[in-house]
Amino acid sequence: MAKDYDVVILGGGTGGYVAAIRAAKLGLKTAVVEKGKLGGTCLHKGCIPSKALLRSAEVFATTKNHASSFGVNTGEVTLDFSRVQDRKDSIVAQLHQGVQALMKKGKIDVYEGIGRILGPSIFSPMPGTISVELASGEENEMLIPQNVIVATGSRPRTLPGLTIDGEFVITSDEALSLKELPASILIVGGGVIGIEWASMLNDFGVEVTVIEYADHILPTEDLDISKEMKKLLENKGIKFVTSAKVLAETLSIANNKVSIEAEVLGENQNYIADKILVSVGRQANVEGIGLENTDIVVENGFIQTNNHFQTKESHIYAIGDVIGGLQLAHVASHEGIHAIEHIAGIATEKVDDNWISRCIYSSPEAASVGLTEEQAKKEGIPIKVGKFPFKAIGKALVYGESDGFVKMIANSETNDLVGVHMIGPHVTDMIAEAGLAMVLDATPWEIAHSVHPHPTLSEVLGEAALAVDGNAIHM
């Protein structure tokens, strides 16, 4: 028997379940169709488990390498990787239970299975009826929504010809389930995910080499951040190869080792390790969900939407990784809320991409919001720049992590804030202040005259703001 809904959401990841909760709070009868577990990639294969592992790596490396500098004598420090994985799994399980509880609280129907959009039928003159192939094997459910939100997320991309075997050649999905750590690893891709894994595995004691196609790592970040990250990670023992084109056809596996060649500045170089981790971006999950039964447009692998996240079928919306752009969990959440509020007739505007903070949870951390210096110059914006190092911040010295800096960019004519870029301790927590400043169209003067408590790491923001006009106090 077909069931009627105001909204059916395909995908119960961060964007999907947040959209469902907002819909329920607005009184919309809502259902979520999820083929895996509620919480999606972020909770089960991305944000949360990887950050849990990063935290364990940080504690291990700090205790092993730096405890004595704090006057703490620990003796021999060893790693129990099985307990590291158990801790990660426990955190994920706790949060998963929380999401399930929120679904029950909101009286949101959850269907475990694969949902597909059907074309016009006896149920509806427009595409949008959802057929759910239940994971339990029971007879398919038929859902008739007034509106649909596609939130099917993404999966790791690989290089053409480079087959993921799950043992020697892996992605972040398989890496999260490692039973034991390899002695060495090649990471193909020096973007955000690749750098986080490089940092984590290095802190766990793995020999790490990063191979990046571009001429510098973190190619989407400000160049000063990229250079500082490379320097600091090299100081920890990570090796980097840039301007390198991996030759997938040269992959070979022998004696429990994997080898591959890369063309580096015109010459082929060979690399050998226990495993290869492929981290070259993510591709949208657009297959098998019935898009061919609609007029929805897919370009370059991503669903195309307007500023309210409507597809060409105006009653079918799409949010999150499946539409490309900034593939971040917090972005998907805001897009989901926006789509639901548009369905409910609430006036809302799309969040400017320049207001969205971006975080890298390596050690050191990096975070940014707004334009990079290179982007600002390319757009012809006249700029002035202030930089301030953590070495001049008392709390950073007390904390024992004083590498890095904050870089603030402003329009030299209007004094408007253009971008903020950070690398150093806890910057992923501090970037929110800069994000709020972007939303409020603040100037460096206003940031500088917001009194930052002493001693705190946040003082670096006030000093960087003063530095934009050459007025930093402690430098």
Write the layout of secondary structure elements.
Layout: E1 3-10, H1 14-25, E2 30-34, H2 40-44, H3 47-66, H4 81-105, E3 109-117, E4 130-134, E5 141-150, E6 154-156, E7 169-170, H5 172-175, E8 184-188, H6 192-203, E9 207-211, H7 223-235, E10 239-241, E11 244-254, E12 257-264, E13 267-273, E14 275-278, E15 282-284, E16 298-299, E17 302-303, E18 316-318, H8 329-343, E19 358-360, E20 365-370, H9 373-378, E21 383-389, H10 394-399, E22 405-411, E23 417-424, H11 427-439, H12 444-448, H13 459-467
Parallel strand pairs: 1-2, 1-5, 2-3, 5-18, 7-14, 8-9, 8-14, 9-10
Antiparallel strand pairs: 3-4, 4-5, 6-15, 11-12, 12-13, 16-17, 19-20, 20-23, 21-22, 22-23
Helix pairs in contact: 1-8, 3-4, 3-6
Tell me what the structure shows.
This protein is of the alpha/beta class and 475 residues long. It has a five-stranded mixed β-barrel with strand order 1-2-3-4-5. Helices cover 31% and strands 27% of the residues. The N and C termini lie far apart (72 Å). α1 links the parallel β1 (3-10) and β2. α3 (47-66) runs antiparallel to α4 (81-105).
**Strand element count:** 23
DSSP summary: helix tally = 13
Q: Into which percent range does the helicity of residues fall?
A: 25-40%
Secondary-structure-derived class: alpha/beta
Poorly predicted regions are none
- State the separation between the terminal residues, measured CA to CA: 72 Å
Main pleated sheet? 5 strands, mixed, barrel
Strand order of the main beta sheet, please? 1-2-3-4-5
Question: Strand percentage, roughly?
Answer: 25-35%
- The residue-averaged pLDDT reads 96
Shape: globular
Over all CA atoms, what is the radius of gyration?
24 Å
